What does this fold into?
Amino acid sequence: MINKTIFERSAIGRLLLADKAGRYLIGVLLAAMILVPLCNLLMPAGSFFHIPTYVVVLLGKYLCYALLALALDLVWGYCGILSLGHGAFFALGGYAMGMHLMRQIGERGVYGNAELPDFMVFLNWTELPWYWYGFDSFFFAMFMVALVPAALAFVFGWLAFRSRVTGVYLSIITQAMTYALLLAFFRNDMGFGGNNGLTDFKDILGFSLQSDVTRCVLFALSALSVALAYILCRAIVSSKYGRVLVAIRDAESRTRFMGYRVEHFKLFVFVVSAMLAGIAGALYVPQVGIINPGEFGPINSIEIVIWVAIGGRGTLFGAVIGAVAVNYAKTYFTGAFPEVWLFMLGALFVISTLYLPKGIVGVVNQLRERRAERNATSTPEQGAQS
Amino acid sequence: MKLNHIFSALFSFLVLFQLQIVQAEQITPLESEADSALLLNQLVSVKSTSDKKDLINLIAGSNLPQRTRVLTAMQDGDLYYTKADEQLVYAKTHPDGYEISAVVNGEDLGVVGSRKVRKISINNELRTVLRGVLAELAIRSEDAAERLAAAKDLIRSPAPEFLAAIERAKAIESNDKVLESLNIAMAMINLKSDQQVLRLEAIEAFRGTLDSDAMSILAAMQLKDSDGNYLEKDELVRESSAAVLSEMRGQAKIYKLLENAFFGLSLGSVLLLTAVGLAITFGVMGVINMAHGEMMMLGAYTTYVIQLIMPNYIDYSIIVAIPAAFIVSGLVGIVIERGIIRHLYGRPLETLLATFGVSLILQQAVRSIFSPLNKSVSAPSWLSGSWEINGALSLTYNRLYIIIFSLIVLLLLVFLLKKTFVGLQMRAVTQNRAMANSMGIRTGWVDALTFGLGSGIAGIAGVALSQLTNVGPNLGQSYIIDSFMVVVFGGVGNLFGTFFAAMSLGVANKFLEPFAGAVLAKIFVLVFIILFIQWRPRGLFALKGRSVED
It folds into this structure.
């Protein structure tokens, strides 16, 4: 009883009381955060409850995607900014993490150079470029994981929103942005490993990346991050500020004429979203073990949009559901029927836009409403019996 | 007696030959094959250097079909005679001796032991003669291209012994290009003489030409040795060469600029072709068609299939492919419009996603049908080769044709939109759908037609792309972002804007490339467009209106 009142009084508690789906989602995430590592580490290998390590890594990957989808849903679902360049923020966060992990390799690289990563030795570089300074410190790297995407989003958004670039124009120039970064990171001269990217990581904060415990901890951290990011996004969208965002989404000019500085609202939410995407990238890299320029590909960014669209745009938990569901389907179909996967994905795009404008969440809601209607129209006795 | 006879014949030929030197055009025809055999086999019998020299000149001055080959073989030491019957043969080394064939009639005589044949020996003096004679033969060949090649060879290896031959060739040369090359070759030789007047004249002869060898030799004259002294001792010559060199460099720079502009325009034309279909669907209809690139891909694959169907008429297949690709891509476009896009008007972001899905399906379909590997589409012969304007500027035909082709497509499109009834209806629907509908225009039908037109033009672009890049399932993806950039940069709904944007982006890209490299140039252009959009959110030539969206 006392617990409940404390829960009700806390800000997070008040948020979640109004959000039943969110409560379920956070419950599932926290349960997974505890149970998955336990099942992986404590259960014997043959046991029914044992979760193999590759599944843990896979689930961790899905959670990173879920965080990324959450970031996109915040800007697209609530503010109408369809960014086709969110993959760029994800990849930048990933590169920041990758740079830290590269520095951690130290003398264990192929060339045994304590200072320079292998690819720099290979390219006959003699000293570390200035922008690699500081990445040997974990906290500096974590700071950059959020700061670099945020800075890019700030500059880009400040320019774009101030000049009222909206709708498809914005989508296309965000795509141009990620494409330009893709081309840039492919260049060896950039000092980010060129085509091959950053890989061969050994450990993080002294823990081996290959060990099961580290992987479980990374998984748990991913689950925790998704839960925290969800609460943050929920807090943003259910505040007064969030109301303005929705107003901008639905009628930008009217909102501006009512006296709101539309570009400031957009810029804030865009930067927050970019930071979340960067964090997702940083969690992704140690689990997958590689980051390369392919992550900047425009196709990747469009795929994020489809996760959100399929899950249900403008619901936050829909984004999480969509990311996990689509990626599970991708894992399954690329393994079982690789020929079919692109047909499937393409059909998903078409069907979800034509018939499921509100995504999976919309379908579930529709079904629930229909049942509620049926219950309301049916006689009380029948309702009680069923 | 017999020997005597031969020598008298030789003598009479020699007299004739002296005449030929004076009147170079006249070549005495040999009566029969017997005569030519007689002449050639004298190579076996004559021994002294001076006799051989005369004989070489005699052969060169004759109209024997095998003269060039005989003399080349002699120069290379591949000319032998059989000891048994003293027959003149070409010999190639072979593990068991020599593989020989008769010079007179080309008959294959099989392999003989190395002791059965003896080489026609030559010395340095004869080599010099042979070189001069062969060079003269080449620069007086029937074929202008061969003459040009020979003259270029002379430029590369100038030697005083060719001087007389060049003089004679110049007197009868009618082709301007060959004549110019001969002049340069002569100047190259004169530059090596020790008379100052000749050298100055030679340097002056370079003026106005753009030969790269001439430029490098002039540049070499400006160099200093390790002690700081000029390698070229004659100051007058050096100064004059410096002046001519700077003039040549200036001209070369202008031509380089022209060439860059040409490359830029041809890249711009490719962009124009890929973007103009998008300008219709995106600009006129407001539909973001992410499957536009796949329409191009379908056009390219149509070209491939047409070539499979008519393998014996590669030169004409591309002409058949253009309407075929238009029809294939156009029909697919109409199906997409009727099936999907029709339901999504007014929701541009959803259209973007749905058409992206279509693009994935089309890619995978092509991958399943044709395999994921690239297909090779062969170029018709009239597209290969280049138009050489001068030493510094040559325009390849495929680039030239693509510029012309893209302009034709653009003009046809403008004509269709502005001057035909269908175009009128299209514009009416674009400007005010409800009003057009109430005036009796079947807007749905016009939509389908417009989308089909845009897609069909993408198909035509695909035909052009099949000549430039690999035809594979990812062909469309690599162009889609560029074409969107062009349309957005030029201003939506404005074909002239698209034309201007494509050309300026193409030229800008090509002019940036030498300084920044291809990838960085592309990045610069992308960043420029991103910044440009901030300044003019509706593109370069935006349609002005008073309405506010929402």
